[in-house]
Amino acid sequence: MPVQIEEETEGIMSLFCEKCNSRRLPKWIKEENKTHWLCETCDNYVDGENNIIIKEV
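Above: the chain sequence. Below: its structure as tokens.
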């Protein structure tokens, strides 16, 4: 008899922008020692938790 083991999984950030579905590129920020992700189309940066942190004008 098969047994199913349930496990909570963390949300995984997509490599594609939720707004326009364009590819995100990693940009390392030396001062913060973090990686921010830049959308090629929207020019918005997001952090590792998929929160917009910088909006380009």
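The first strand starts at residue 24 and ends at 29.
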